[in-house]
């Protein structure tokens, strides 16, 4: 972006102090930045990542699914902690994926009219039975104390493959559990992006070299003749919505790239798009083509965030400070096009889970102890409260809303 100054106004000389160049080699500077970020996370608790003001939506497990879904949509969130009022205890999380499982169950076992009636009385406490019926993995019943370090919270998110971590405390008077807040991957990574300015600028290695995320397989031994973009699930504008719903449920993913015949990314279909159809009561719309379903998408959809393999991790974290991003779709860029590729063709996907796992430095939880030894006990980086705190926070703020 450029700007033009009037001839009557002369640009004042900059008084901003220039950052001293790093004397470390590029790779060493990158690794040093990662160690500094891990040290920073070890010195700050989940409390530090809390905004000044936020809303927490908690749903009773006795609530029926329809009312729970209405509550989520009215409050602009896509997940909420569940509370067992009989036991006065935390009972897990309600997420969009739970609703996806329920939709798939009804689609397989009953007609739409039955689904529309049953969803009026179906209670949240029965969702686990649906997952058992479908044979899909149940979400981990994990939580953490708000005073735990952000590093420990991040490790638990990685270990359990969870996208959000409920933070629980004890009521000193009754001894009962109290749900304080929910720490999401997005909130944790944004906290890093806001406070670790110097370190982010040093994360300049390209995504191609870092090899994080899921990429289209080039190994003939692992090629899928039915999906040339294996192991990434893809769809076209002519794919029925329910085929994508099946991918969401079976693979426990939240988005599928929509590509054309050349593999160029045209759009992204997300779990929240399915919820939009359910909110309209359009269960039969699951037979629609993706192209038709996209016409009913909320105008608030932020669009698809794409990048090329030559972009850096630091660039992504800087972007995270400015807008809500939950995944990057990696496509062929100008460099690939010069080598005979197709600009915009799907190469891979990087999720927040991939980014967080890389930053923490744990690809296998057996290496947690080893990673801990690399983290120093103190950090010179202190959080900037004015930047971190937002005016209002909705638990797991949405993309559409989003997850």
Automatic annotation (TrEMBL):
Which GO molecular-function terms appear in the entry? Answer: AMP binding; protein kinase binding; protein kinase regulator activity
Stretches of Basic residues bias are at 7-20
Q: Which PROSITE patterns match?
A: CBS
Ranges for domain CBS = 137-199, 226-288, 297-370
Fetch the InterPro entries from UniProt: AMPK_gamma/SDS23_families, CBS_dom, CBS_dom_sf
Positions with biased composition (Polar residues): 377-394
A Pfam match: CBS
CDD domains recorded: CBS_euAMPK_gamma-like_repeat1 (cd04618), CBS_euAMPK_gamma-like_repeat2 (cd04641)
Q: Family per UniProt?
A: Belongs to the 5'-AMP-activated protein kinase gamma subunit family.
What name goes with this protein? CBS-domain-containing protein
- Record the organism: Crepidotus variabilis
